[in-house]
Amino acid sequence: MTKTALITGITGQDGSYLAEFLLNKGYVVHGVKRRASSFNTQRIDHIYQDPHAANPQLHLHYGDLTDTSNLTRIIQETQPDEVYNLGAQSHVAVSFESPEYTADVDAMGTLRLLEAIRFLGLEKTTRFYQASTSELYGLVQETPQRETTPFYPRSPYAVAKLYSYWITVNYREAYGMYACNGILFNHESPRRGETFVTRKITRGLANIAQGLEDCLYMGNIDALRDWGHAKDYVRMQWMMLQQDAAEDFVIATGQQFSVRDFITWSAAELGITLEFTGSGADEIATVAAITGDKAPALKVGDVIVRIDPRYFRPAEVETLLGDPSKAKERLGWEPEITAREMCAEMVAEDLRVAERHALLKAHGHDIPVSVENG
Ligand code: NDP
Ligand code: GDR
């Protein structure tokens, strides 16, 4: 029997990979997309299906996690077997600037979905996945972090996600719903939003190598993260909804690297050897050697990374390292792509775009510079 899934956040990194994954499994996929004043479906344009065509498998609905009646109507119309709640204001630094909005979307949005499922009498038939996060561990109480590690959130984002974690557990216990949390550690890809640290680095350094930007301005490059690939992680999101009973799982690689490591790897993919000098807000990275032809705009001695304290956070999560043993033992899940391989894939993709832009620029065309940073 064909299954139906509803994905909030389908236009985001994970939503796009999950939609692809579920379509390949034969699902009918419904996605909630926000109304925007410009197109915001770039990540799913390649799987778009004309709604006028016979029997489309992918359907998009305008909606917003802040709008109860709209969410209820979409669930009523689509009668999903599985709901994946991936929609969120997902940027930790932004959550300090917009804490109330972040709480409305990331905490109340989850409650709105769960209540809609219950209100419509679907609590025994619709399975629910909540996109929980390693940010719940914040000021870590145990290393590595596992399902039983106490939480200590350190941002409005993480506090909002803490509510969602517990309301998901509560609906499971109170109403017997199949509702579960995936506690996902950082995961990235070429589709990662441009203001998250990995993508900011791969895109920034590719642009610098091609002469489109001069310098990358970073925050706390001592931060340590457990980075996986989004493709591996959406597979696990689906697996979590296919079990006999709902349970929560940590999804991580079990390996940890610093932001500085990620900068070093990205530079190496471009044939650049970096030398870091100074410390704290005065640290810089200088080009020490160049090999190959991927960085024609650079010469030895150029300073291409500096620290800008505006990217420091009011409260930082310094270190995260996950223990994915439960996912491995119970579900047989293991990540297939290493952080280093993922970095290479991201740099290659951003370099491809930067080379195209550099060529256009060389022929006198204006290249738009993004004003968004983060
Ligand atoms: P993205 O930021 O790439 O995507 C977020 C999605 O949510 C986008 O589709 C966005 O729409 C949508 N969205 C934002 N606000 C609203 C709203 N008010 N109503 C409806 N939809 C909204 O995040 P990721 O794909 O990286 O992450 C997916 C989920 O997993 C998020 O909940 C995130 O917090 C969580 N998570 C992510 C991790 C990661 O490392 N990537 C790790 C752990 C948890 P639009 O495209 O219009 O902006
Ligand atoms: P994070 O991801 O906050 O872990 O949340 P992000 O990539 O934004 O930051 C990771 C670490 O890098 C440090 N950092 C910088 N971060 C950004 N964005 N920009 C910078 O210039 C910069 N310099 C250093 C940060 O301080 C931080 O320590 C992500 C999101 O996807 C969440 O939605 C998700 O829940 C968690 O991962 C798990």
UniProtKB/TrEMBL annotation:
GO terms for molecular function: GDP-mannose 4,6-dehydratase activity; NADP+ binding. This is GDP-mannose 4,6-dehydratase. Its cofactor is NADP(+). Keywords: Lyase, NADP, Nodulation. It comes from Yoonia litorea. Its EC number is 4.2.1.47. One of its GO terms (biological process) is 'de novo' GDP-L-fucose biosynthetic process. The keyword ATP-binding does not apply. It catalyses: GDP-alpha-D-mannose = GDP-4-dehydro-alpha-D-rhamnose + H2O. Catalyzes the conversion of GDP-D-mannose to GDP-4-dehydro-6-deoxy-D-mannose. Residues 6-346 form the NAD(P)-binding domain. Belongs to the NAD(P)-dependent epimerase/dehydratase family. GDP-mannose 4,6-dehydratase subfamily. It comes from the Bacteria.
